[in-house]
Amino acid sequence: MAHFDKKQIVKKSENPDRWYTDVILRSEMADYSPVKGCMIIRPYGYALWENIQGYLDKKLKDLGVKNAYFPLFIPMHFLQKEKEHVKGFSPQLAVVTIGGGEELAEPLAVRPTSETIMYDTYAKWIQSYRDLPLLINLWNNVVRWEKRTYLFMRTTEFLWQEGHTAHATFEEADAFAKTIMDTYKRFDEEELAIPVLTGRKSESEKFPGAKITYTLEALMPDGKALQMGTSHNLGDNFAKAFDIQYLDKTGKRQYVWQTSWAETTRVIGALILSHGDDGGLIFPPNIAPTQVVIIPVSHSDAAVSKCDSLKMELEATGIRVEIDDREEKTVGWKFNEWELKGVPLRIEVGERELGSKELTVVRRDTGGKRSVQLSAFSVQLKKLLNEIQKNLFEKMKKFSEENTHEVTNYDEFKNIMNNKKGFIRAFWCGDPKCELSIKGETKATTRVLPLDAKEEKGKCIYCSNDAKHRWYFAQAY
RNA sequence: CGGGGUGUAGUUCAUCGGUAGAACGCUCGGUUUGGGACCGAGAAGCACUGGGUUCAAUUCCCGGCACCCCGACCA
Predict the structure, then answer these.
(1) Which nucleotide is at minimal CA–C1' distance from A336?
(2) For B32, which residue's CA is nearest its C1'?
(3) Is A285 domain-assigned?
(4) Pair (A42, A71) in one structural domain
(5) Nearest nucleotide to A477 by CA–C1' distance?
(6) Residue A266 Cα distances to A219, A356, A389, angstroms
(7) Looking at the domain assignment, is residue A10 inside a domain?
(8) What's the Å distance between residue A469 CA and nucleotide B48 C1'?
(9) Residues A196, A124: one domain?
């Protein structure tokens, strides 16, 4: 304990922004890059991303989605085909004007998202109703020239998956967009242990070019809401802009109905913010790069071989294990290091354990120590990992519920935004002017309207005109 | 793109009108290892950049650039 403050990171409660950056850099998740606003994802951070990819990739393939790749460069005039789309993205574009030492006849945008370049091709691929539905996903990087960046949350370049589908009917497209939203919800809640609100976005908050944007919103510990992912019903907007038509069974030409949807490396930021504490990261076991770390306290042959056999036993049941047998670091140093890295469980193996029939296992989330019998060891560890997974989710669920307020007058609204923030449920008339005024006065924007929200009779929190729905408001990240 | 701040060793910072110092980290040797060990020896710097002022600038002044913080834009 005497040396504990030596290289301590800032306390999360004292300075959350600084804590967030400190933890990411010190845990070796990511590093700053020589290019402004860009981020280097280090092996430990990338391993987490690979776990995210692994889960989502499988779920998407189960839905019949196939992976493909489309080019990084997009001819400028493609982006201009859909009016709202170009308006939404042009302020954030990076544009290549020189290639091979010569000025290009037409500048190329570095993709901010791939709708336009894909749909130009979709128009060629889709001829008949037999070509539908077309379900394609890309794992790639995109560039949006953000003025202000923040590791994982908002970087100039980021990694994501973007799915793009085309369907014969509006209903089918809408159902698919919702299915994706549900898939994301399961992922966020069951894997990342982050509870989310789902529903649709207001007109002003929806994706440029979309008819309906479905969203997943999570409440972060500082009371601000983070968009964890979106799934858009694009209607026939892009179909008309890119002339994507098919012949139906009766021989009639029809426009397709489309969806696009994405989840990004931003969810890693949400993961860090949601579960971490003063000791550093805390990863939910389902997604953690390493689930169990074994630390030999002694370097005797007996202890080392005990560690090895433990590792083999656990790995055989699918648990991700690492042994930290570096001799140049002391035991205490390693404890702190692996706590910083958020590994859910730690096992210590020294002379004391060699003759014992049980081992001490330490939980990262609660700090609790427990003796675990060596018989059926891996089964019990799996149980513990599940408990941690559940505990992290329940904790965030409770936080989210405790910080969701139902409000009927604007003073109350402002009061909450001035203090703890969080989600506010309140009637809104649907007029973008009220939305904008509320944002200007409180920083809160409409985040989401749940799909199952019943129509009610109420008065807009801002203008007192008739309102049908209670929306969720919050300050956005 | 507005307002503020900072640029000195790998990192965090100190210094000061006379060409630089600490801590941590790193390397080597030794002793250690059950909650961030200790001793000793090292390596490591065109003081962001360009221009002034001055006998002399890392230090003072101005411009540029970069980064950080705070606002507007955003996954």
Answers:
(1) B36
(2) A330
(3) no
(4) yes
(5) B74
(6) 14, 44, 20
(7) no
(8) 56
(9) yes
At residue A428, the pLDDT reads 96
pTM of the model: 0.95
Total H helices, total E strands in chain A: 14, 25
* A358 and A296 within one domain: yes
Q: Does residue A437 approach strand B to less than 7 Å at its CB?
A: no
End residue of a domain, out of A245, A275, A305: A275
* Run means of pLDDT, 10 residues per run, chain A, 477 residues: 45 83 90 83 95 98 98 94 89 87 91 96 98 98 87 91 98 98 98 97 93 96 93 97 97 98 95 94 98 94 93 97 94 95 96 92 96 95 98 97 95 91 95 92 94 95 95 93
- Give the model's pLDDT for residue A189: 98
Domain CATH for A270: 3.30.930.10
| Identity of residue A309 | S
Q: Is strand B within 7 Å of residue A335 (CB)?
A: yes
Looking across all nucleic acid strands, the nucleotide with the smallest C1' to CA distance from residue A151 is B75
Measured from the CB, is A98 under 7 Å from any atom of strand B? no
Between CA A129 and CA A126 the distance in angstroms is: 8
The last residue of a domain, from among A343, A378, A399: A399
Query: What range does the domain containing A411 cover?
Result: 404-475
In three-state secondary structure terms, A332 is: helix
Note whether residue A220 is domain-resident. yes
CB A238, CB A263: distance < 8 Å:
no
**CB proximity A114–strand B (7 Å threshold):** no
Q: Are residues A302 and A434 in the same domain?
A: no
Calpha distance A78→A120 (Å, rounded): 8
In the chain, the amino acid numbered A296 is P
A111 touches strand B (CB under 7 A): no
Tell me whether residue A286 is in a domain: no
A202 touches strand B (CB under 7 A): no
> Are A58 and A149 within one domain?
yes
Residue A349's Cβ-side half-sphere holds a number of Cα atoms within 13 Å equal to 26
Tell me which residue of A444, A468, A436 sits closest to A455, measured CA to CA.
Answer: A468
Residue A330: CB less than 7 A from any atom in strand B: yes
Q: Tokens 């403050």 correspond to what residue?
A: A5
Total tally of structural domains belonging to chain A: 3
